[in-house]
Amino acid sequence: MIESLHLRNFKSFADATLTVGGLTVVVGVNASGKSNLRDAFRFLHGIGRGYTLAEIIGGKYGEGGYREWAPLRGTTSEIMRFGQPDFLLQIVGKTEDFGWFEYRVAVSQGIDHGRYFIDDEYLIIYDDEYERDVFATQGVDKENDRDIVVAHFVLSDEGFDEFDTLLRDRPILTQISSRRGVSQNLRSVVGQVIATLAAIRFLDLSPDAMRRPSFPGQLALGESGENLATVLQALCLDEQRKHALIAWISELTPLEITDFEFESDATGRVILFLKDAEGGRISAFSASDGTLRFLAMAAALLSDSGRSLFFFEEIDTGLHPSRMRVLIDLIERRVAESTLQVVTTTHSPDLLTLVGDKTFESTSVVYRPPGAGGSVIRRVSELPHIAELRKTQTLGRLHSSGWFEDALYFDDPAEAAE
Hints:
Elements: E1 2-10, E2 13-19, E3 23-27, H1 34-48, H2 53-58, E4 60-61, E5 67-69, E6 86-95, E7 99-109, E8 116-126, E9 131-140, E10 147-153, E11 161-167, H3 172-177, H4 184-198, E12 200-203, H5 207-211, H6 228-235, H7 239-252, E13 257-264, E14 270-276, E15 281-283, H8 289-303, E16 309-312, H9 324-336, E17 341-345, H10 349-354, H11 357-361, E18 363-367, E19 376-379, H12 386-393, H13 395-400, H14 403-411, H15 413-417
Parallel strand pairs: 3-17, 3-18, 12-16, 16-17
Antiparallel strand pairs: 1-2, 1-6, 4-5, 6-7, 7-8, 8-9, 9-10, 10-11, 13-14, 14-15, 18-19
């Protein structure tokens, strides 16, 4: 579970913090920096997957040129805010066994061939009674500036620390987890933080990918919605989840959907059919884009183990405004009953109008003030008079009128003084 993400000199962000709740909604005009938040989460996810800095930023390729991991968007120099020597990402979260943690990583680009190196990295755990260091960088090895000195702590009652020299071209977090001689307690703490980062998922759904028949036994939904048929097939083995899914899809469409059916094509791959009350069937090939997107999002949320954070860009794409309530209801109920989290960007005024009070508290606006040199993030709940305006005007109306940006402009101390 992640509580906040702090960005310093990362892409368009100079110094900003995103508050993360169950459902986190991010709004802002085009080119304000919303999509850069996705890249920040992808960077952290790449750490969780054990990649080097070069692989996280530039892509991971296997034998034969197969691409395992897509590079971050933009050129290699654009990951840092223009003219800055480094960038920093920091998250606060909570693990199942060790309570709260704070993890920070700072990265710079070397002079030689533009390679990226770790400048600073640390992990601490804490609760109401104590705060304990897990590891922290102590400086660059003077004899070899591509190595970095790290202190890691046993996390026992004795609390003594050990020093080690590790490589600067990959995150310390994953180097420690695979290091020989590391105590079991230390390995467990680090392992749970890695698992939190590795569990972040990104869905950029494509109707073509969702319509494709699925290979039997594929139970993980791809980033574009691949394997939708077999993921739904497995989900439907649980009668309770199947009935919930049917109820939601029936609310979404004017059709009275009563069941899902799955058939194999000539190659043995699985095709999805929706069955209506009159006995008719609609295949995935002819279902609407909006129906498939909703099915994919519902399948991902219902079939997940409850430890993931999903990032959606423009979650409302392809959905009729009158059906938006079904989607928001599904997500808010799901995150309320589990540790699952969803972060989404949106331009939809209707979506903002529908969010509940908890989601309102974790709704933020990304804004690029004139002359500020970077994007800022403000929680909508902190804007002046927003509680009263929300009751009389609705968030959707305020968003569509540009009020958020106006409020940020006039609430800025520098602008107010000018």
